[in-house]
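Morning F.,

Quick status update on the modeling queue. The single chain you submitted on Monday has been processed. Sequence for confirmation:
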Amino acid sequence: MKPYRVPQLARKYVEYDMIQQHTEMPAFPDSRTRLLFVFLNRNMQELHASEDELYALVTSLLQMGLDTHDMIDTLSGIRSPEEMRSRQLKVLAGDYFSSRFYQLLALAGRIATISKLSDAVCEVNAGKMSLYWGMKHFRLDAAQYLSQMLRLKKELFLSLTSLVAEQDREIWEQLLHEFALCDMLVEEWDKRAEPDKSRFGYMFWHVYSNGDQNEQALLSESGTDIEAWRNLVLKYKAEDAILDKLRTAVMHIRQILSDDQNTGIEEIERMLEPFLKLLNSPHPVVREG
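Structure tokens below.
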């Protein structure tokens, strides 16, 4: 199998000093991108030279564009010049990453793939509207949030399933589901200590789903007290819920690999390393105020 170089290829498009100095960027969607590359590489007899790399690269850039736009705050109120600059850079960076997918595919003459990914973006945006409506009206529970977010994390990559060898498609979709779930849970874990970022995330809906009416009313307020939030996280073991789901997803991946003999098990096993590192590391938990 050829070396996996997509993150290195993406750097020329995503690593700019001004962006890195003045705003926060989302993580590169490495496990989903690498999984796509693995399965496209297995189907090279049906693809032209380097198309596995090209398709993995443009999908990752498009995902970065969507994820960057998702980080733009929608709160009203006065912002400092630094906050305004950060917000503007997120808008511009997200647009830039998204435009690069179109440019790279157009230059390669892969118009059909532009159409596939563009249709997937429409599906993602429609899914976001449904999700945001449910959030706004508090019509979600933790399971529904997880399911809808997982769909958004998979959609771009699933749109290229027709380029995966037919005999590999079932296991590709199974593994994509679990790796997308792992990616999402790590994102939720990383923002757990910051109430502004974790608001309306998985931990929020886990607590909200399990809380009583008074606790739900408290969470419905826009400025929930940090100490009160931490107490609820501790009470309902929200951090443990994330780790338990991550542990289960890793177990499912290993079960899928053990049931199949032709997937390049060693390569996919290496993709589990960052998730296993989190699960096996001691980590501080939110303490009661």
